[in-house]
Specification:
The protein is α/β, with parallel strands linked by helices. 43% of the residues lie in helices and 12% in strands. A seven-stranded mixed β-sheet has the order 1-7-6-5-4-2-3, sandwiched between helices. Strand 4, helix 10 and strand 5 form a beta-alpha-beta unit. Helix 5 runs parallel beside helix 14, helix 6 packs across helix 8 and helix 15 crosses helix 16. It binds pyridoxal-5'-phosphate.
Amino acid sequence: MTPEQFRQAGYAVVDWIADYWASLAQRPVTSQGPPGAVAAGLPAGPPAGGEPVEAVLADLDKLVAPGLTHWQHPGFFGYFPANTSGPSVLGDLVSAGLGVQGMLWSTGPACTELETVMLDWLAEAMDLPARFRSAGRGGGVIQDSASSATLVATLVAVHRAAGGRWREVGVDRRYRVYTSTEAHSSVEKAARIAGLGAEGVRLVEVDPQSRAMSPVALRAAIEADRAAGVVPALVVATVGTTSTTAIDPLPQIGPICAEHGVFLHVDAAYAGAAAVCPELRFGHAGLEYADSYCFDPHKWLLTGFDCDAFWVADSTELVEALTVLPEYLRNAASESGAVIDYRDWQVPLGRRFRALKLWFVLRWYGVEGLREHIRSGVALAARFADRVRADERFELVTPHPYGLVCFRLRGADGPNEQLLSAVNGSGRVYLTHTRVAGRYTLRLAVGAPQTAEAHVDEAWELLSRVAETVG
Ligand code: PLP
């Protein structure tokens, strides 16, 4: 494809995406086809000769789009949002066009330096503690996901718990990771990958009402382990748990970690984005105790997957834990000690120029534009919660500090399951569920860029109407 052919095909692809976004509200939120329908529509093998982009776009319409779950649909209320936006797509397009590898500063100086500055910009926009800024020992890096951030934090924490010997001796003692029973499954996965074994994670009980980690139980678990010869390595606290957006109490958890020399990682994958709004920073109280922190701009901050922002208070121990230096990567800039080589801050070697999409997003919307998006999600969730509260057939299950509302029909689980299945079957909205203290609970997470009052009201009217027919 010549640059001129690319220009023509590229315009057509951008037009296709713009038309897709403009038509979202008219589409069913989820695919209506059975398993295998998309694969059955594709030829058995690749074409022998090349085809024009127009043919591919026609098949996108015919084969791919009907097989999609439309995460940007204004009626998408499932899981947590996975935002994208025009500036994010354009930043990603430039990144793809440049094809730069940012593993070392020397393989992509601008890739590295723009990333450092973007993470400092984000830290400023969210008023994160000074210890995470690149001016001192700390700094930020983009990981592909919050799961990877947790894995990296786990590896550094074990390295620290081993007195800096982990990179030589591996896991030579029984180390423990503590997280709440409500924490994301990525904590358990990280501990398993780190080689801590099935006993590597201790799930700390939560307060039955708030669903937040109990500091009393955490302290007891750490002390019991120490007495038994197990080395407490890491606490993963969550700001905005996946099920219900519960907030673990960092002001109490932080001092326990400090007292016992345990690494504290704070996972705010979804809810962290809210901190661009000064009035929504309550979840970050006590964050100054954290050794590392992450949130996903790719969830609620108008930045397409993949973009997890991960900060550490001490990048030296992170690099010490992860660096491996083969001859073919040696270069004068790295040896000068004056540059960051982000390959040492992550598991893979190679890395894309992901800071570009953050740069495009931050410059297009400005901090005020991002605040508007977050505030709209929080207000729409409150609007929906008001409807639930006012209807005695329903109950709110947990508080809704951000954009997620957890609710259910009073009584047994069965009607709630039927309700979810029926409203999702309508194709107009998509919600998911969880269990809170064993009870089947519906989750409505607001945050898709096009969602407005009318869509939340439609979701409520549908739920209210269908509720009459279940049970
Ligand atoms: N941590 C929390 C609290 C989450 O809610 C999620 C996903 O919803 C994750 C981690 C995993 O995020 P990622 O897909 O970026 O790994």
